[in-house]
Amino acid sequence: MLIFFQGGVFMKIYFANGLFSRADFLYNQQLVAHLRQEIPHVDIYLPQENAAINDKSSYADSRMIAQADTAELLSADLMIAVLDGPVIDNGVASEIGVAYASQIPIIGLYTDSRQLGATNPQKIAALADVAENQFHYLNLYTTGLIKLRGQIVTDEAQLIRAVKDFGLS
């Protein structure tokens, strides 16, 4: 679905992350602005920018939200899914399933610092102690769907490179 025009490739990206906390809202806003700056020939759908369904002082029922966001996701060439948090956001997990089933490539962004030190023998040994896991867990089914359709990166610079590489392929 990539559309070529004079000056480069134009692609549509669906950006999925939680959007209810101020921290998530601002992170999404900042990261998407950075992506738009670094990759100018891209159209990024950020659900929080769709006031018709995501102005939480207003009203949109579950059907309206599901229809609007699913239509945007199904029209995308690529999905970015932020995987950070105590668990993957429920909405993001659902959107990953829709993207996978629709054969839309997915780039997961997972910045959790607990993944550092994967070769540290003390951290590895601590896995044998009950309740001493030093690593964060992500649902393997959900991450498997991402890996079957794309990749998981660990920082914003890798994300930008992955999106650029996708646009060139």
TrEMBL record:
Keyword annotations: Transferase
Pfam families, sorted: Nuc_deoxyrib_tr
GO biological process: deoxyribonucleoside monophosphate catabolic process
Alphabetized InterPro entries for the sequence: 2'-dNMP_N-hydrolase, Nucleoside_deoxyribTrfase
GO MF annotation list: 5-hydroxymethyl-dUMP N-hydrolase activity; transferase activity
Protein name from the UniProt record: Nucleoside 2-deoxyribosyltransferase
Organism in which the protein naturally occurs: Lacticaseibacillus brantae DSM 23927
Classification of source organism: Bacteria, Bacillati, Bacillota, Bacilli, Lactobacillales
